[in-house]
Amino acid sequence: MSDTMNTMGAYMVMSFFCAQFLVAFGQSNIGTMLALYGAEGLKAMNLPGEATVVGMILLTAMVNLLVGSASAKWALIGPILVPMLMAVGISPELSQAAYRVGDSVSNIISPLMVFFPLVVVYCQRYVKSTGIGTLASLMMPFSIAMLIGWTIFLLAYWALGIPLGIAAPYTYTM
């Protein structure tokens, strides 16, 4: 039992500081400020919607390398990016779809993915020297190919006007 509590101690300390950060982030309204200033910046750049969506996909893919949990990642960037993109005319539904594309493509190269250690163990059955770097470098071409393919797929859906879902538009008008 003492061994279990020893391993739980680090988790409890980390959870405490994460909770403190989340409360401070929520009470400070930094997310709202980032959304407002980000929307102003996007409006000033006058990027086409497609470029903005590609940027969100790339941002999500990069954040995925640092934050393993999809729900934690959405809780962190969703309240900032959705209002920001709504201000430049991109619907919340399209923001969610772009998030899912960016989130899915970099899972296999992120050591923070829940199943990453399991995949390493399975690889070690066949190649004993396999490690985190070996698996990440092996999966990198697949990750890049999926990033390009899914992004083109989402943009093609948008260009062809194929609905994302029931009454789910691509654009948002204020």
UniProtKB/TrEMBL annotation:
Domain of life: Bacteria
UniProt keyword terms in alphabetical order: Membrane, Transmembrane, Transmembrane helix
Molecular function (Gene Ontology), one example: secondary active p-aminobenzoyl-glutamate transmembrane transporter activity
Xref: InterPro entries: AbgT
GO biological process terms on file: p-aminobenzoyl-glutamate transmembrane transport
Transmembrane segments: 51-67, 74-92, 104-123, 135-160
PANTHER family in alphabetical order: ABGT FAMILY TRANSPORTER, P-AMINOBENZOYL GLUTAMATE TRANSPORTER
Protein name: Aminobenzoyl-glutamate transport protein
Record organism: Vibrio ishigakensis
Higher taxonomy: Bacteria, Pseudomonadati, Pseudomonadota, Gammaproteobacteria, Vibrionales
